[in-house]
Design brief:
The complex is a heterotrimer of chains A (284), B (402) and C (250). The longest helix of chain A has 36 residues, at 245-280. Chain A contains eleven helices and two strands, in the order ααββααααααααα. Chain A has helices at 3-37, 42-46, 59-90, 95-109, 112-126, 133-158, 161-169, 174-203, 206-209, 231-241, 245-280, and strands at residues 49-50, 55-56. In chain A, helix 3 (59-90) runs parallel beside helix 6 (133-158). Chain B has two domains: 51-149, Periplasmic binding protein-like II (D-Maltodextrin-Binding Protein, domain 2, 3-Layer(aba) Sandwich); 175-401, MetI-like (MetI-like fold), CATH 1.10.3720. Chain B is elongated, with a radius of gyration of 29 Å. Chain B has 16 helices and six strands. In chain B, the strands form two sheets. Chain B has a four-stranded mixed beta sheet with strand order 2-3-1-4. Chain B has a two-stranded antiparallel sheet with strand order 5-6. Helix content of chain B is 62%, strand content 6%. In chain B, strand 5 and strand 6 form a beta hairpin. Chain C is of the alpha/beta class and 250 residues long. A six-stranded mixed beta sheet of chain C has the order 6-7-8-3-9-10. In chain C, strands 2-1-4-5 form a four-stranded antiparallel beta sheet, with no helix packed on it. In chain C, helix 3 (100-110) runs parallel beside helix 6. The chains are: A mainly alpha (284), B mainly alpha (402), C alpha/beta (250). Chains in contact: A-B, A-C, B-C. At the A-B interface, helix 1, helix 3, helix 4, helix 5 and helix 6 of A face helix 1, helix 6, helix 7, helix 8 and helix 9 of B. The complex binds adenosine-5'-triphosphate and magnesium ion. Adenosine-5'-triphosphate is lined by residues 13, 16, 18, 36, 38-44, 56 of chain C.
Chain lengths: 284, 402, 250
């Protein structure tokens, strides 16, 4: 076969395969959006599940997921940020630094169900928090820790070294240099790390299975020791173990769409934040 | 004033170091808890503490393995000679069977009567084996209590049967789950890699800037969609589709899991291998074009070989993600804990087993420990994959996590 | 009939005009040197002849480029065939991360040559022509990247020669090399001119004077002067050329 023909054949093949893949991927979103939009009405968002979860809304699950998102990032963000600063700016180039890097890398690649097991063993049983927002948030916090550490570390490393040197040359301490000179420049990347973490936490199911998620609990939590419903687990319940899976389908489509919309929201927010901040921060 | 500043500076430095340390040891904590919980599986016999298995005193066989006991009670072994005893058919006794030997109300009678009856049974039948609650143990027992050996690690990993609710002994052999996991995940990567590579090549060399400007954020979005949503899609679309296409009684199968995992692995594979292909130095491409190579030849003979490490890394990361994937697989694979025998059969993977069985098992029971042991296996497999990616290509990995 | 010819060539990268109204002819079996300060368009001009500039998608071109009297920018022109005929050697040695043998055989293989004996013969011959044969004949399966920089550059020349081009474009082929390797390559250029038409870009005035028959001096995208090398280096017409070749400005 001549090389021109070969190229034409291969490129056509790639075009078709790509088109196919893109179609598949988009059809997933499109399908769920199509079925879910009809359900996504105000009372779906603000109502309680009714009639064996076949009607009503998913308000408790939304509140639960918001609790978990807030709780886990209240813990993970400060710890992750400071760890990232430590690895990038404070740690001497030694074993400890390497150790932390390898550990966070391993953490990042660990399956989420493992975090569920760990959270159950340590937070639920050992520390006696029981199935609770506290245990769930801690578990999810460890899950997203590496994302935050990484984004902090990489964004600090990307800052022009001249700025760091200039700050030190003026007699600033390490912390002053980080706080006044580096963090403002690294902010867009750190914030997008935070937003990615939010979207990740909102959809994780396996880690909350044994640490917080309630099957059906139509009331608001009153303390961090309460169980809550959560969107992803609620979708699981609706689609597999409800009293009548067919009857709960429409509720499930709505919940799935809501989960996609949350991810989309954070993705768009990430782009916007970057665009907005890069206007002020362009000395890289 | 100066002093105050110094103190706060020292404090914040201390805090920063502390956080670094906490993050560093969190993996160690995970490892410690995982393995210590799992170790409980291996230092006790795999039988409920409250249950006793006994045979007649006249029976001379050695204490059998857990798996043999299961076979006896399943009627797979029917003669004592199979266990090295005198040739005689095996007579089974479960507590419920008392009804066969005594009037229907026997079982509900006072414990002492029960004890006496159990004792008499074991004295009368030389070929008897049975189990009963330890609380009903006769005072001067006429039978011999069997000692069930502890499960060892190799037996756990190599065991070919996973029957956590078998009575009287539980059977924990992880092999069907391990092979089930690998079976589904490898199949998924086999589907996803060529497709992902095609898209990556398309994005680098064929698609224009405008198409890429749409494609890239779309792929980011797809990699962020929660697995439970993919699982739900699989359940309502892929499973019925497979059921219809192949005329199966149920569409939940290894194939459904593999297709779904392939879809989920695509964004990872596409974005990493795209990056790797794009990183081919311009000088290499020019050298190839300058010799009269066509675009495809340059892709095929220069860019892909150059990006091969990145492509392999993308496949491995996709594989790791597939192996660890829990909810989506749980929803579409049908969850039969047997050795996989085909694409259209249901299988159960390790993460799915953990997620599904944790709720069914009693706390502190052996079953929970066995699930933790499965977690250890999963952890080790994914850790090995991730370390090899790290070793091959330190930078791809980092980028991936953001 | 000249081997290579440019007629009224104007070339833009986006809004930036890199070549301004250039016309120039190069004869068969000669070495032409392109000289001029950095950024004046030498490489861009050189890369017109094997259409390497096509790889940048914001390039616009007017005028005619002829190779063997054929317009190579015609719609119907076969770019791959052109590049086979017009070989190129780059500033930095850029061997593929393959073995020495596979590097040289690459051009043959992509042009559909299957015959093993023929490939081996061509590889040997090309390595000999690039005076690399004696250095590598014992182990042709070594990775090319293990060779020294100078050897790598000769390997790239052998790789270009293997497909039997008739023109060889060289973009500062010795600027990344040590003086000894550079002079080996210079000798090589001198020998190769018997069979090939060579165009070489260089910043090294002595090199231009030593290896070339004719020299073209470029300045800010314009062709200032084009004449026999002897004349350019002894009594050029333009003051700018004079200043440049005597090193009065860079
Ligand atoms: N792909 C491109 N896109 C935009 N501008 C380009 C591109 N390639 C070259 N240029 C511009 O065209 C002009 C000529 O570049 P060229 O590389 O031909 O210079 P040169 O004479 O070879 O310089 P040097 O001696 O440094 O190699 C320069 O101003 C350069 O910035
Ligand atoms: Mg140049």
């Amino acid at each position: 076969m001549s090389k021109k023909l070969m190229q034409a054949v291969m490129f056509t093949l790639f075009r078709l395969l790509s088109l196919m893949v893109v179609c598949i991927l988009f059809s997933i979103v499109g399908f769920i959006a199509y079925r879910g939009l009809a359900v996504l009405r105000p009372q779906f968002i603000t109502g309680l599940p009714e009639n064996g979860m076949t009607e009503g809304g998913i308000f408790p699950a939304i509140v639960g997921t918001l609790c978990l998102m807030t709780g886990s990032l209240l813990i993970a963000f400060p710890v992750g940020l400071l760890s990232g600063i430590y690895v990038s700016e404070f740690a001497p180039d030694n074993r400890l630094k390497r150790f932390i890097q390898i550990m966070t890398n391993s953490l990042a690649g660990t399956p989420s169900i493992i975090f569920g097991l760990f959270g159950m063993a340590l937070f639920v049983n050992q520390l006696g928090f029981g199935d609770s927002i506290l245990a769930g948030s801690l578990t999810l916090a460890i899950l997203v820790l590496p994302v935050i550490i990484r984004s902090t570390e990489e964004s600090l490393n990307a800052v022009n070294p001249a700025i760091r040197q200039a700050s030190y040359a003026l007699g600033a301490t390490r912390w002053q240099t980080v706080y006044r000179a580096l963090l403002p420049l690294a902010l867009p990347d750190i914030l997008s790390g935070l937003l990615v973490s939010f979207s990740r936490v909102s959809g994780e199911t396996a880690p909350i299975l044994f640490t917080v998620a309630a099957y059906y609990l139509p009331r608001m939590p009153s303390s961090v020791y309460d169980q809550v419903m959560a969107l992803p687990y609620h979708l699981y319940v609706l689609s597999t173990s409800g009293t009548d899976p067919e009857a709960t389908r429409s509720m499930a489509y709505g919940t799935a769409l809501l989960l996609i919309l949350i991810v989309l929201f954070f993705n768009v927010l990430t782009v916007l934040v970057r665009r907005l901040l890069s206007k002020y921060v362009n000395i890289k | 004033m100066k002093k105050l500043f110094n103190i706060s500076n020292t404090l914040i430095t201390l805090l920063i170091k502390l956080c670094g340390l906490i993050s560093g040891i969190s993996v160690l904590l995970i490892i410690i808890f995982l393995f210590s919980e799992a170790s409980g599986l291996f230092n006790k016999p795999s039988i409920d503490q409250e249950t006793v298995i006994a045979i007649s005193k006249k029976n001379t066989i050695n204490d059998p393995e857990a798996i043999q006991i299961k076979q006896i009670f399943n009627r797979e072994i029917r003669n004592w000679s199979a266990l090295g005893g005198k040739p005689d058919s095996i007579l089974l006794f479960r507590l419920d069977d008392l009804i066969l030997y005594y009037p229907a109300d026997a079982v509900t009678e006072v414990p002492d009567t029960m004890r006496a009856r159990i004792n008499r049974l074991f004295a009368q039948h030389d070929n008897l084996i049975g189990y009963f609650p330890a609380s009903l143990m006769p005072h001067e027992f006429s039978g011999r209590v069997l000692r069930i050996p502890n499960l060892n690690v190799m037996d756990f990993i190599r065991g070919r049967e996973w029957i956590p609710d078998a009575r009287p002994v539980n059977i924990y052999g992880a092999l069907p789950l391990i092979t089930g996991t690998l079976w589904v995940s490898l199949l998924a990567i086999l589907i996803a890699l060529p497709l992902g590579l095609a898209v990556a090549i398309y994005m680098v060399e064929i698609a224009g800037r405008n198409i890429n400007r749409i494609l890239r954020p779309a792929i980011t979005l797809l990699s962020g969609i929660p697995s439970i949503v993919y699982g739900f899609f699989g359940l309502v679309v892929i499973v019925p589709f497979i059921q219809d296409q192949f005329g199966l009684p149920a569409g939940e199968s290894a194939l459904a899991g593999a297709i779904l995992l392939a879809i989920m692995a695509l964004p990872t594979i596409i974005s990493i291998s795209e990056q790797a292909i794009r990183n081919t130095p311009q000088s290499m491409k020019e050298a190839s074009y300058a010799l009269g190579a066509s675009k495809w030849q340059t892709i095929h003979k220069v860019m892909i070989p150059f990006a091969s490490r990145g492509i392999i890394a993308s496949a491995l990361l996709g594989l790791a993600r597939a192996i660890g994937e829990t909810m989506a697989v749980l929803m579409v694979t049908g969850n039969a804990a047997v050795m996989p025998s085909g694409f259209l059969e249901p299988v159960r993977t390790i993460p799915a087993a953990i997620a599904a069985e944790m709720g069914e098992s009693t706390q502190d029971g052996l079953h929970v420990k066995a699930l933790f042991a499965l977690g250890c296996i999963l952890f080790v497999i994914t850790l090995l994959i991730n370390l090899s990616v790290e070793y091959m290509q330190p930078r791809t990995k980092k980028r991936m996590m953001l | 009939m000249s081997k290579l010819e440019a007629r009224d060539v104007n070339l833009f990268f986006g809004a930036h005009q890199a070549l301004k109204n250039i016309s120039l002819q190069m004869e068969k079996h000669t070495v032409t040197a392109l000289i001029g300060p950095s950024g004046c368009g030498k490489s861009t001009f050189l890369r017109l002849f094997n259409r390497m500039n096509d790889l940048h998608n914001d390039m616009r071109l007017s005028g005619t480029i002829l190779v063997d009297n054929k317009n190579i920018y015609q719609r119907s022109a076969d770019v791959d065939a052109l590049r086979k005929k017009v070989g190129m050697v780059f500033q930095k040695p850029n061997p593929f991360p393959k073995s020495i043998f596979e590097n040289v055989a690459y051009g043959l293989r992509i042009n559909g040559v299957r015959n093993k004996n023929y490939i081996e013969e061509r590889v040997t011959r090309s390595l000999q022509q690039a005076s690399l044969w004696d250095d590598v004949k014992d182990n042709l399966n070594r990775p090319a990247l293990q060779l020294s920089y100078g050897q790598q550059q000769r390997l790239c020349i052998a790789r270009a020669l293997a497909v039997e081009p008739s023109v060889l474009l060289m973009d500062e082929p010795t600027s990344a090399l040590d003086p000894a390797s550079a002079s080996t390559i210079e000798e090589l250029i001198y020998e190769l001119k018997i069979k090939y038409t060579i165009v070489v870009v260089t910043h090294n005035m002595q090199q231009a004077a030593r290896v070339s028959d004719r020299t073209a001096f470029f300045y800010l995208g314009e062709l200032v002067e084009y004449d026999e090398t002897k004349i350019i280096f002894t009594h050029p017409t333009h003051q700018r050329t004079q200043n440049y070749v005597t090193g009065r400005f860079g």
